[in-house]
Amino acid sequence: MLARGDPQLPGARQAEVVGDLPAAERAYEAELKARPSAAAWQRLGLVRHLQNKFDAAIPALREAVRLDPSLWTSHLFLGICLYRTNQFAAALSSLEQADRLAKGSPPGREEVDYWLGATRIALKQPLAGLQSLERLLARNPKHVAALELAVRTYSGLGSALWNEVAERQFESAPGYEVHGQALESEGNLEGALEAYRQSKTLNPRRAGPGMSIGRLLLRQGKALESLAALREELSLAPADPETSYYAGLAAIQMGRYAEAAPLIETAARWARRYPEAPLALAQVYLALRDPAKAIGAARRAVDAAPRSPAAHELLVAALEQAGQKEDLAQEQRRWQEQARK
Prior knowledge:
This protein is mainly alpha-helical.
């Protein structure tokens, strides 16, 4: 949101690039004394916001929207700062203005919906707040903050809310998915599975709940049903790494290693997000008696986690299967040196 490339503010720009926000704040303050503008007030407010100086950011952002009421990002961050200082009614007014001005889906649109939801929930308007969160989740089903907030809200409201929801016909595919998340967080796996299935029934072409259904079925030991659900999900979201990972695990449980290999390969491309995927892939290729590919997967696991005993043991097993004595000795030396560090 910060205008790092503004040629009129070289000191502030350089300070932002190196992460010196106090220096950027001073540079904007000096600029405003010489050439006040809505854009400069906005940048000052954002720099203060980034330093959690919400009280100080509020007057700067208010001045920005006074000079240029069309700056929807200033309305957004003003609303966030007001929320952070517990001025929820004023925050809602600013956020609703940002909502009206942010037409379409520009960058930051998700922030508008998230903070509208959070503010309405803070004002004891949970249903309205959840509607805002559902709009966000309809576009981005994996928005972590929105999912967590919605889960907490549904959990807090409990069964009384759901009776009211049913009366108002507030049912929707995203709503049931979030409800499933809430039930799963409480350990109610059967209830969560039913909620995810209801979400799937309401919108069969929506990606998201199918992965959760397959994941829970796998936890219940129903590998065949799990794989069927996850295969269907992959038809909606091809090559999704999380869905591919769980589908691969389901295939492994059934001993279908050839089927599991390309699925786990997809997940292993995202090793930082799914560090267990290269480990599983190495095991799959060892089972398929393909030591060359097992070595490659095991090395990826070692690169991702050099201190992992599991990654080390899998690489050793793959090298032994391939008969690569020199590489095996090198890996053993690496492991011994790692242990001494």
